[in-house]
Amino acid sequence: MARDTTDFRPIEGMDELVDYLAAGNKPRDKWRIGTEHEKFPFYVDGNAPVPYGGDRGIRAILEGMQQKLGWDPIIDAGRIIGLVEPTGQGAISLEPGGQFELSGAPLETIHQTCREGNAHLAQVREIAEPMGIRFLGLGGSPKWTLADTPRMPKSRYDIMTAYMPKVGTKGLDMMYRTCTIQVNLDFESEADMRRKMQVSLKLQPLSTALFANSPFTDGKPNGMQSWRGDIWRDTDNQRSGLLEFCFSPEFGFADYAEWALDVPMYFVIRDGRYHDMTHMTFRQFMAGDARNDITDGMPTMGDWANHLSTLFPDVRLKRFLEMRGADGGPWRRICALPAFWVGLLYDAATLDAVEEFTRDWSYQDVRAMRDAVPEQGISAAFRNTTLRDVGRDVLALSRQGLVNRGRKNHDGFDEAGFLNTLDEVVARGTTSAEEMLNAYNTRWGGSIEPAFLEYAY
């Protein structure tokens, strides 16, 4: 999230919290695709991490991008920490360890998404390469220790950094040493949201397996195909993971709001300053327990929007649904991730088919799959088959959904071609992580340094 929300309308009651989510309902002709992708900046000389400051630091990249694009700066305590397109059509933000993120504009087709991603990568390379900086497309930082990793001067991250070790063992690794590709998708009603939430929660472990791309940590293999996926198993289980209540046939906006109310907060913003609120839940905030923490003591709609942005379930509900399971990866993956989910969720016939395909998958089934995937990838067992076989069937459904959409580019090609990189994973039976591990053990000669060449943008 590039910019935290400031909306000072007071919250009068629970109905407003639910209505905030329901306001995301959109007619089908207004559905859009918002793609986010993160990457690690590094100095080509020595494959070292890039700090915030200095003439060749991340601040300088942001300032160069601001001059090139004309976007508005996002300022935190006097420091530039991101950029936003003046009409809200896209933003650039920093993750805690300097991961450089594009939050794309809401677009109509995967063709547009891919053009947007390619344009962004070309623009940021134009600014960064004269500084000797490139970007790494992996799901986990392969070389730098947590101590080596720079920290960005962003107020919300200071609060999170102090809080994470209190609620899990891997939260700081999540913050500072992982990257993802995500897509944000719309719904037309509460019932449509429910179907999409349930289908995508069931298939999120498959997404993690297909995009598994983080097999190295601290310069050596870490025993995982998706180290990032493993990290999410013990980051902060009060606010992350697989939400069992979402599997209910009656699940709706109010259920999500009730869950969110009982998750500890991170912060509120008053007078441009971030106040640490990790000692209370939003429900306690609503009850007036913050009178000793902030002057007015009472929550606003902006506080609610910001709180929702600090929840990390496998699929996150705001005024859209965020698919959060995939590792970051090479540029082809930036287009493949939204294509995968749009094909499954944006065509009515395909959504019917995939809902039927997953209908009898229980929470326990999906939980077991989610636990197996970080280490085993698409070889993980699922019932009497493997995720490789499940992936073959699901990719066929996604491809049909993209064909049914019929969104063609100027050359007459539909969006289905963007799935080719995932078809390759299933066809060869190995993930990107396994391919890297094979390279590490053979032609890379036991070194992870070649990853900075082969997986660089």
TrEMBL record:
Pathway: Sulfur metabolism; glutathione biosynthesis; glutathione from L-cysteine and L-glutamate: step 1/2. It holds the Pfam family GCS2. GO terms for biological process: glutathione biosynthetic process. Its EC number is 6.3.2.2. Disulfide bonds join C114-C335. It comes from the Bacteria. It catalyses: L-cysteine + L-glutamate + ATP = gamma-L-glutamyl-L-cysteine + ADP + phosphate + H(+). Keywords: ATP-binding, Disulfide bond, Glutathione biosynthesis, Ligase, Nucleotide-binding, Transit peptide. One of its GO terms (molecular function) is ATP binding. The keyword Disulfide bond applies. InterPro entries: GCL_bact_plant, GCS2, Gln_synth/guanido_kin_cat_dom, Glut_cys_lig_pln_type. Belongs to the glutamate--cysteine ligase type 2 family. EgtA subfamily. Belongs to the carboxylate-amine ligase family. Glutamate--cysteine ligase type 2 subfamily. NCBIfam families: glu_cys_lig_pln (TIGR01436). Catalyzes the synthesis of gamma-glutamylcysteine (gamma-GC). Homodimer or monomer when oxidized or reduced, respectively. PANTHER family: GLUTAMATE--CYSTEINE LIGASE, CHLOROPLASTIC. This is Glutamate--cysteine ligase. It comes from Aminobacter aganoensis.
